[in-house]
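chain below, 82 aa
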Amino acid sequence: MTAFPLESSYPVPNPRRGQRAKYPFATMQPGHSFAVPIGNATLQQVRNRLQQSLTGLRRRGRVEGCFITKRDGDVVRCWRVR
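prediction:
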């Protein structure tokens, strides 16, 4: 007897084709910006999240361009500059 018996009574789930982008980097044109609330995080944590997201999109070839961030009150604003 096998350690893992085969079963056929469970339905196959729908395939998941990745996640939707959390930030709109791919749709931005030079001059566009968006704001991310800092909330309970630190400024560096929010910037790190933005950088990690952008790095993943670049690695998969979904985004190009140059982006900058700056604190604007209680949000971090991200601009596409090129």
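The chain is about 20% helix and 20% strand. The first helix runs from residue 43 to 59.
thats it, cya
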